[in-house]
Amino acid sequence: MPDSTKIPVIARRQRGQVVLLTLILVLMIAAMGVTRYAMSGASVVAEQVASNAAQMAIIKTALIAYSVNGRNPAPAACPSTTHARPGELPCPDTDNDGIEECLCTAAQRVGRVPWKTLGIAEPKDAAGETFWYVLAASHRPWTSTGGPAAINSDSKGTLPVWKDDMVTNLTNEAIAVIIAPGQAIGTQTRSTTVTADCALTGTIIAQNLCANKYLEGTPGGGFNWKNNGPFVMSLATPSPSTFNDQLLPVTTSDILPVIEQRVGKDVITLLKQYKVAAGYFPWASNAWTGSSVASARYGNPPLVTASPTDWGSGGTPTVPVYLTDNNWWRVIYYAVGDRVDPSPSTFNVFNYGGGGNTSVVIIMPGPAGASRPSTSWADYVADATNRDGDDTFATPASTAYTKNHLYSIPYPYP
Prior knowledge:
It is a single chain. Helices cover 24% and strands 16% of the residues. It is α+β, with helices and mostly antiparallel strands. The strands form three sheets. Strands 1, 2, 3, 4, 7 and 8 form a six-stranded mixed sheet that branches. Strands 9, 10, 11, 12, 13 and 14 form a six-stranded mixed sheet that branches. A hairpin with a 4-residue loop joins strand 5 and strand 6. Helix 1 packs parallel to helix 3. The longest helix has 63 residues. The protein is elongated. The termini are far apart.
């Protein structure tokens, strides 16, 4: 028979064990909940970053498409221009109407993405804010600056972009920076009716038009709201309460391949029209002047002055303004074989890629390295066989997106 005096003790012990097990179970469930919450929070942040990245990719693609023709046509409120050129990008939208401004002055190279000008839906970041956009002075529209530098394959951007708050430099040659501003943090206020001093413009304007109410500076010296930055992608130690910008730089390498494709086709078309009208192709420019030199078969295309017959004479076409405004002749290699004289005694026919007879070859160089601009064809034409002054040309060895690209006219033509 069990000892009745021990039953209460055993019961108490069992009840204590149940309570302890229950407490442990509650703590485990709570810990799982905290873990799920933390994982859920991290997942939300990752989704926001991914969403912003997808929107920035759309914007970047639209900017590349714009760059093929430049400001053509110009916005209705802006003066029309005959100087639209491949490579220029739209001015930012500084009044929040979705349309690029006519001018990109020193204080007007920071603004929102001009989504109406680009022909895309209004791009919103994960916080519901329209994306911002900074444009390098080097790639502003021609009519916005009163005589900008030329844009061609030698052109480089001027915007510095850093990672980890000025620790790792990603590029000093961005031509534009796309920025997701995120929600307001710190002292940022974004009223559409309240005005305040704006650090960027140095004027009193509505808070929602002021870049530094959306974009941050950093302890290391970054300024995502300034015209020339420097632009910072992240802090060395993440701090969402003081920095939540998300950036995507646009570089020359992003836009130049499609621009060179447009330019290369335009030059080939021009040379074909010249041959049809004159009966021969023009001599090359072998003195880096853009003007034909008699008997020269290798050099630059003579887009400034052609001989034996000049442009616009004897039924030959005129050269598009953008080609001469922007010194495109300076970066293109031109080799001419077929009939570069009204009455040649012989014809020189090129062998291109082992594919037979070719009258003309032009080579687009791709983005500029540190050594350009220069007067050495080795800095423009990567493959020695394509710049050695003989009649054999080969498909570029490089498979890079930014490699040299060759365009040719067959023999005979037409």
